[in-house]
Known about the structure:
It is a single chain. By secondary structure, this protein is α/β, with parallel strands linked by helices. The protein has helices at about 10-25, 50-65, 80, 85-90, 105-115, 165-170, 175-190, 215-225, 245-250, 270-275, 280-295, 315-325, 355-375, 420; strands at about 5-10, 30, 40-45, 70-75, 95, 120-125, 145-155, 170-175, 195-200, 230-235, 260, 300-305, 330-335, 380-395, 395-400, 410-415, 425-430, 435. The strands form 4 sheets. The chain has a 6-stranded parallel β-sheet, sandwiched between helices. The protein is globular. The two termini are about 40 Å apart.
Amino acid sequence: MRKAALHNLGCKVNAYETEAMQELLEKSGYQIVPFDEEADVYIINTCSVTNTADRKSRQMLSRARKQSPESVIVAAGCYVQAQADAGKRDENIDIIIGNNKKKELIPILDAYFADKEKKKRSEVIDINHTREYEPLSLTRTAEHTRAYLKVQDGCNQFCTYCIIPYTRGRARSRELADVMQEVRALAANGYQEVVLTGIHLSSYGLDGPEQGKGSLLSLIRSVHEVEGIRRIRLGSLEPRIITAEFAHSLAEMPKVCPHFHLSLQSGCDATLRRMNRRYSSEEYKEKCSILRKYFTEPALTTDIIVGFPGETKEEFETSKRFVDKIHFYETHIFKYSRRQGTRAAVMEGQVSETEKARRSRLMIEMGKRKQTAYEEKWIGKKVDVLFEELVEENGEWTAEGHTREYLRIAVPCCKGEEHLWLNQIKEIEIGKKSQIIH
C-alpha cells in the first residue's frame, strides 16, 4: 500500500479540493499520513494569490523533497497554473497538476508509476478557455461539525490587483443536482452546518441559466430543504448581490446564518476605481444597511487593502473614516502585495513598505475596537451555539463552538464529556458561565 501526504495552501476552495483529492486517494487504496512523515507521494495544493503565496508554495515543495528525496512530489493548483514553466525551473517537482485537472489525480499518478523512466509530467489546461466545472466532491471533511461546500469556480471581475481570474479561469458553476447530492451525503454523515463557498460565490448560476443551475438564491433555498442541515453559512459575497429582495428572501429562511462577508477593499471611491471594484463606498454602505434592516445584529465582516498603488495619505484617511462608520464585526487587513501579471503591479505611486505597515497597524487597531464593541452587545443574551471541540488549558476544560453570527463561545465542561457537547446545538447565555473568545 502506497502512502500519500497532502498539504494545502490558500483559500477555503483550495482546502475543499485538497480534501477531495484525499478522498480520491483513499478510495484508490492509498494510506494517508501526516505531511511530516515518510510517504511515497507528497501533494502540495499551491496558492498564487500573492508573491508571498508563490514563495510559500516553493518552500513547501522544497521541504517535501528534502524530507524524502526519492518520493514523488506533486505540485497542484494555482501556483503551477500561473507559472507555465514551473516544472522546468523547479527540480523539486515530479508532477504538475493545474486547476480543473485535480479530478484526474489517480490516473496521473498511475501513469507516472507505470513509466519506468519516471519522466516529469505536466497536466495543465488553458484555464482561460474552459467552461467545465471540475467535478470534485466530499462525503466528509476535516471539520467534524461544519462542512465547506464548493459550488462555484473562476471569476470574471478582473480587479486590478488580482491574479485569480488568470489562475482559476472564468466563472462557472456546479450543477445543482450534484450540489444537492453532496449536501444530502454530508447531512447523512452528521454534518449540521454547511458553508457555501466559491472563488466568486455571487456568480453562481450566471454561467448556465439555460442548464437549470438557477441563481445563488435558488441554490440556498434548495439546501435549506435538506433534512439534517440546521445552518447555512455563506462565503464571501459581492456587495452588488445584496438587494432588499435578496436579503428579505434570506431572512425568511431560518437556517441562513446572519453572518455576511462583503469584501470592501477600500472606503475611498478613487481607490476603488483604480482597483476596478464596481461599486462606490455609498453603494456599499447601502448594502450594509439593507442587511441590518432584515437581520437583527448581523455579523458583517470585510477585507481591506492598505497601501494600494496611488493611495495617498488623504485617501487612506478617507478609507479609514468610512470603515469606522460601518462598524464591522471583523476587518481583515492586508498590506498591498505587488503581484506580477496584474495591472496594479505596474501602476505609478507604489507605497513604501514602511507606510503600508503604519496604515495596516492603524486599521487593525480600529478593527479590534469595533470587534470588542460588537461582542459586548451580546453579553447577557441567549444564543444557539454549535459545539465543535473540547479544549484543555491549565487543567481546565471548556466546550467551544460558534453562534450563528460566528462568535466563538467557550463553556466550562469536564474531561470525557464529548458525547454531551460535540456536534450539539445548545442555548447558552453569554456571560453566564460562558465567554466569547477569539
